TrEMBL record:
It is an enzyme of class 4 (lyase). Zn(2+) binds at residues 39, 99, 102. GO terms for molecular function: carbonate dehydratase activity; zinc ion binding. Its EC number is 4.2.1.1. The keyword Ligase does not apply. The keyword Chloroplast does not apply. Keywords: Lyase, Metal-binding, Zinc. It catalyses: hydrogencarbonate + H(+) = CO2 + H2O. Binds 1 zinc ion per subunit. The lineage of its organism: Archaea, Methanobacteriati, Methanobacteriota, Stenosarchaea group, Halobacteria. This is carbonic anhydrase. InterPro entries: Carbonic_anhydrase, Carbonic_anhydrase_sf. Pfam families: Pro_CA (PF00484). Its cofactor is Zn(2+). It comes from Halapricum salinum.
């Protein structure tokens, strides 16, 4: 066993000591406030970005590209990982969390613009993103830099995942759907690690969002609306 596993087990000792009595209220059931769909990127600390250390508060899903869909014999549907809390645990909020410099979005961009190929498992994931991002790639200005293109497509991908949730007949109508971008690369105005809200129930106009939610107006920001 390597040192990484030993270090992780040592860290878990501290976790278990701190949380020993904090699972009492969720021993038999869970009713999380929100399901978050994050990218698996190691720089996106899914619970810590919300300051969460409460068992049972967030139902966290992760995959490369923060996708909400999966491909089945019935076509593309909302992934069971995302759908489960919305249908079975009374969760009424879904948050799609993109992040700056996303590797999955980058790989999809390269696939669409230069035919990049990868291992079959990664190509499967890219294949789920590519149809949603293709129109976004086409809409990019010719003079936009590669880095700027990727970060605009990060927003575009979040929008498409929000759309998929809103349009799915499997997602209850009362569920609030929000799209955000987590920035640790100084792309938006703000602090590293800050969440920027870019989409609320399909609305992407920052001015309208600020008017609708004046108490959190400073949290709305977008790089691009194609």
């Amino acid at each position: 066993m390597n040192d990484t596993v030993r270090d992780l087990l040592a860290a878990n000792d501290a976790h278990a000591a701190a949380f020993d009595s904090r699972f009492d209220h969720v021993q038999d059931a869970q009713y999380p406030d929100a399901v978050t769909v994050c990218c698996s990127d190691s720089r996106v600390l899914q619970d810590h970005i919300w300051g969460n250390d409460e068992p049972g508060q967030l139902f966290t899903c992760a995959n490369i590209g923060n996708r909400v869909i999966q491909r089945t014999d019935h076509g593309e549907v909302v992934s069971g990982d995302v759908l489960y809390p919305l249908v079975h645990t009374e969760t009424d909020t879904a948050i799609v969390v993109g992040h700056t410099g996303c590797g999955a979005v980058t790989a999809t961009y390269d696939h669409l613009t230069s035919g990049l190929s990868d291992a079959p498992g990664i190509e499967h994931c890219i294949g789920l993103l590519a149809p949603a991002l293709e129109a976004g790639v086409d809409a990019l200005a010719d003079d936009v830099s590669r880095a700027a293109a990727i970060n605009r497509l990060v927003e575009y991908n979040v929008d498409r995942q929000v759309d998929a949730l809103l349009e799915s007949p499997d997602v209850p109508d009362h569920v609030d759907v929000v799209g955000v971008v987590y920035d640790f690369q100084d792309v938006y105005d703000g602090r590293r690690g800050e969440i920027h809200v870019i989409n609320v129930a399909g609305e992407t106009d920052v001015s309208l969002l600020k008017e609708s939610y004046p108490d959190i107006a400073d949290r709305f920001d977008r790089l691009w609306t194609p």
